[in-house]
Design a protein that fits this description.
The protein is an alpha+beta fold and 383 residues long. The protein has eleven helices and 17 strands. The longest helix has 32 residues, at 112-143.
Length: 383
């Protein structure tokens, strides 16, 4: 008997340890008798399918999700093309969802966060539907050249946007430690109109990050917010450097060349130079290097230098490309890809990105890729 109890306790402990980073999602979906329900997870900027679960004849299902970062995560239950419910689950949760095959009357037990997110989603969807309706009417008014109606609809759309954003801010302020705020920060009315798009909105991103990072430092969502803040701070720093170029010159970066020797951008101080960020994976950028070689050969005698940063992870392929293309200037790469400090420092958001600096460190031009235009910028820089 004693041996049996020991075995039971051991099995219980093993089971508990194996499931300490999991949550159980149970659902009752009316009308989904023996139907396939898709379980997926939001992975910061894309949705990852986890599994397909067939419900019982009564429309019930149970699914256990593993949560490795010990933080709340977003999970979706979908039927066909219809998303039925969004669940915020953290380790140890046992969440029950009730809905139907159309996603109506969603209710939760065991997850106040999911309940709050459902309310936020309903409000968002209502605002989005109204936005789409007004936008369609606006397009019709513009096509009919009804300027008075178009102006009225523009005013209504603007009012709707402001009203919804105020409610979104109110939700963030009222629930400062809620994971639903992560979802709110990434809402869009359309591809060109994020709810939080103004420079001053960074304060809300910072507040949400700071309120969550202490409890969930390993969360991929919190880390994503931290990256946004880092990019914003880098942009501000870069703008300050450019605005005060005559006083502070250009921001310095130090990266290894193909011989593993670290080369600082500041070593070019007093010379006209081009700072370029590129990737070997784009054929067009290889062709652009040919134009650069022509201009470098022509103006190197006037002091022109090029500091070319490769934003790739595979340093071997990069070094090979440098040798094969016979690039005569300073070529550097730290193998960190888009996470390189150099990328943050110069707020690089697309490739290629190019800066032309004068002898005094003043920014002469940015992203001039036509050969004739770049040559004009170089001529100005070498004066």
């Amino acid at each position: 008997m004693r041996k049996f109890l020991i075995l039971c306790v051991t099995a219980f402990v093993a089971f508990s340890c194996a499931n300490k980073n999991s949550a159980v999602i149970s659902a009752q979906i009316d009308g989904a008798d023996s139907k396939d329900i898709l379980i997926s997870q939001l992975d910061v900027n894309h949705i990852r399918v986890l599994d397909t679960v067939t419900t019982s004849k009564s429309g019930a299902l149970k699914y256990e999700v593993n949560i490795l970062d010990e933080s709340p995560n977003f999970y979706y239950l979908s039927y066909g093309r219809k998303r039925l419910a969004t669940v915020i689950a953290k380790p140890g949760d046992n969440i029950k969802v009730t809905t139907d095959t159309l996603g109506n009357n969603v209710k939760f037990e065991g997850s106040e966060e999911s309940e709050l997110l459902n309310k936020i989603t309903l409000d968002y969807n209502a605002a989005l539907a109204e936005f789409d309706k007004l936008s369609a009417e606006l397009n019709s008014a513009i096509e009919a050249k009804d300027n008075a109606k178009a102006d009225d609809l523009k005013a209504k759309i603007s009012k709707l946007y402001v009203k919804y954003k105020q409610s979104a801010i109110k939700s963030i302020v009222a629930n400062p430690h809620s994971f639903t705020n992560v979802s709110v920060l990434y809402q869009y009315f359309n591809d060109q109109l994020p709810v939080f798009a103004q420079a001053t909105d960074i304060i809300f991103i910072r507040n949400v990050h700071d309120s969550l990072v202490m409890s969930y430092p390993n969360s991929v969502y919190v880390k994503s917010l931290a990256q946004q803040l880092a990019n914003y701070d880098a942009q501000v720093k870069m703008n300050e450097h450019i605005a005060k170029a005559s006083e502070t010159s250009f921001p310095d970066i130090t990266l290894p060349d193909i011989n593993a020797n670290k080369v600082s951008l500041s070593s070019l101080e007093g010379k006209p130079f081009i700072l370029m960020f590129w990737t070997i994976s784009e054929v067009e950028q290889k062709m652009y290097n040919n134009d650069l070689k022509d201009l470098y050969k022509k103006y190197h005698k006037d002091g022109l230098e090029i500091y070319q940063v490769c934003v790739d992870i595979d340093k071997t392929l990069w070094a090979t490309a440098v040798k094969e293309q016979e690039l005569p200037w300073i070529s550097v790469c730290d193998g960190a890809g888009v996470d390189s400090p150099a990328v943050y420092t110069y707020n690089v958001s697309k490739l290629p990105t190019l800066f032309v600096f004068s002898k005094s460190g003043d920014l002469v031009a940015k992203d001039v890729f036509a050969k004739a235009d770049l040559e004009k910028a170089i001529q100005k820089a070498v004066r």
